Amino acid sequence: MTDFTITEDFPRSEIEFDARFSNPGACYQYLFQLKWPDGFVCKRCSCQQYWLSSRNLYICTQCEHQHSLTAGTIMDSSKKPVTYWFKAMWWFTTRKSGISATNLKELLGFGSYGTAWTWLQKLRRCTVRHEREKLSGRVEVDEFFIGGQRSGKRGRGAEGKTIVAVAVER
Fold first, then answer.
1. Which Pfam families match (predicted)?
2. Residue 27: which region, alpha, beta or left (left: phi > 0; alpha: psi -120 to 50)?
């Protein structure tokens, strides 16, 4: 399996994403790194030894407490493969104009619109910072592009540029 840095190794393209997260094992390895960056530690007894069950549960060898990589996440109790969740998160975070439930339903081959809609609602709730101060009154919003290879080329056609959105309270 590949070593990676969680915050600095974000795939730059869908091809890169597919190569990295093409199977459940790669997705679970990523979740393991997020949950236990310094290696497994049982939250009940602090033991560092575990065995892996056939249902992807990490079971402490000392107290036999079961740990799931998806517990406490939006993937908790989902019957869909973890690769579907990763793909949905990729599309949700990288599409300039977002993704609709209909698009997600078609892209992942869901049988119902409701499943795709529920997934998007969960993803949207994850992006909200509850401790943030909400803007009120008159709010002005603007966007601009920064960086990239070609200077002088304006707008969305400028490849490699990053969009920055700013909201200001007046």
1. DDE_Tnp_IS1595, Zn_ribbon_IS1595
2. alpha
